[in-house]
Amino acid sequence: MTKFLQSYGYDLILGAIAAIYVVMSPYTKVEESFNVQSMHDILYHRHRLDSYDHLEFPGVVPRTFIGAFIVSFFASPVVSIITSLGFPKIYSLVAARLVLGCIILSTLRFFRIQIRKNFGPQVESFFVLLTSLQFHFLFYCTRPLPNILALGLVNLAYGNWLKGNFYPALSFLIFSTVIFRCDVMLLLGPIGLEFLLTRSISFWKALKYCVGTAVVAVGLTISVDSIMWKRFVWPEFEVFWFNSILNRSSDWGTHSIHWYFTSALPRSLLVAYPLSLLGTLLDRRVPFLILPVLSFVILYSKLPHKELRFIISSVPMINLSAAVAASRIYNNRKKTIWKLVNMVMLAFFVIRVHDCNIHGILQQLSKRLCS
After folding, report:
1. DSSP secondary structure string, 51-99?
2. First vs last Cα of the chain: how many Å apart?
3. Cα–Cα distances in angstroms (integers) from residue 79 to residues 70, 82, 87, 132, 175, in the given order
4. What is the pTM of this model?
5. Which of 84, 214, 220, 285 has a Cα at 20 to 30 A from 25?
């Protein structure tokens, strides 16, 4: 039991928090409608494509079915039991969201293990603490959005980056870009450029590797989605054309160019935001990890339509920088200069725990489970 908790204790903490969010807020928004309906149709209509919802209500742009297939595959045993017991379909939705959360948190686990190997167990602990105190990341990780499906592959890329597997890291980013979210190219570009400038990869080998990976990814999404949409289609290319070339995403509202840095990131990161800036100064390895991620956010800021989910994949790496700073502050807490900084940091942690209103959450959770 002790070994199990040592290996999976952090996963149980993060998973429990994400599960609580799902139970408290089981319903979804319009942005999630395609993947929700796709998972429903795959689980309930199976091979009867003519009954699928997207053929009658295709939406503004087509989306890939690959993510829905993956989640449905793992959720199908639970959904079969739910259906056989006669429970309402909302329970199937909850099950699918929980499965998605498990998938995303398993990729975060891979990244977290590389944090422990490279920065030590204390930095890993602070990484988990910061992540658990932030609402948005754990809430979003169960939402069936293309951004979240892309996040899983980005987490694997981050983990391989820390592990020194630079070519696989690029491969995961390419798959994420081609299949789930074309805007991940704004992260792929800066990371690939840094790999080249630091001579972590060879240009010609990287070119062959990336082209080959892109061909496989394009072939996969066209093969699967052309069957599902009953026409030749590369969904993310059409999304790219609609959002970036035609700039039609602005029809859904715009924000100022600095919104990500002055509103979205401060609200989602909380105390990790200032700590991440400090982390870049305290460990010479961190700037090389943070700079491409910040470049991604800066490049994305030029798109007028902005939402936190667009840059959610930047949060894990920023939390790593914050965890490095928190660990250094804690280790030097007895020194005069650092003592005040440590007290301020702990005060922020306490305030955040108080803001979570754990007692109220448990009351609302018990009401939902009993109703």
Report:
1. G-GGGT---SS---SHHHHHHHHHHHHHHHHHHHTT--HHHHHHHHHHH
2. 33
3. 14, 5, 10, 28, 28
4. 0.92
5. 84
**In this structure, are residues 111 and 153 in contact, taking their beta carbons and an 8 Å threshold?**
no
- C-alpha–C-alpha distance, residues 82 and 92, integer Å: 7
List CB contacts of 281: < 8 A, sequence separation 6 or more.
none
Angstrom distances, CA of residue 170 to CA of 154, 176, 239: 9, 10, 21
20 phi and psi angles, rounded to 5 deg: -60, -45
Which is nearest to 148 in space by CA: 51, 22, 244? 22
CB of 369 within 8 A of CB of 26? no
Q: Are 128 and 13 in contact (CB under 8 A)?
A: yes
Cite the DSSP H helix spans in the chain. 2-24, 33-44, 66-84, 89-119, 121-133, 135-140, 146-163, 166-175, 185-197, 203-229, 235-240, 259, 265-269, 272-282, 286-300, 315-331, 336-356, 358-370
219-264 confidence digits (pLDDT tens): 999 999 999 999 999 999 999 888 777 776 666 667 889 999 999 9
**174: confidence class by pLDDT, cuts 50, 70, 90:** very high
Q: What is the DSSP letter of 201?
A: S
Q: Of the candidates 117, 119, 188, which has an alpha carbon nearest to the alpha carbon of residue 154?
A: 188
- Separation of alpha carbons 58 and 63, rounded Å: 9
- State the burial class of residue 143 (Cβ atoms within 10 Å of its Cβ: 0-12, 13-18, 19+): buried
Spatial contact of 297 and 265, defined as CB atoms under 8 Å apart: yes
pLDDT digits (tens, 9 = 90+) for 177-208: 999 999 999 999 999 999 999 999 999 999 99
Given a contact cutoff of 8 angstroms between Cβ atoms, the answer to whether 155 and 175 are in contact is no
Residue in the structure block whose two tokens are 């959360």: 101
- In this structure, are residues 130 and 272 in contact, taking their beta carbons and an 8 Å threshold? yes
Give the closest residue to 226 by CA, choosing from 59, 64, 43, 69.
64
Q: Which two tokens stand for residue 85?
A: 């017991």
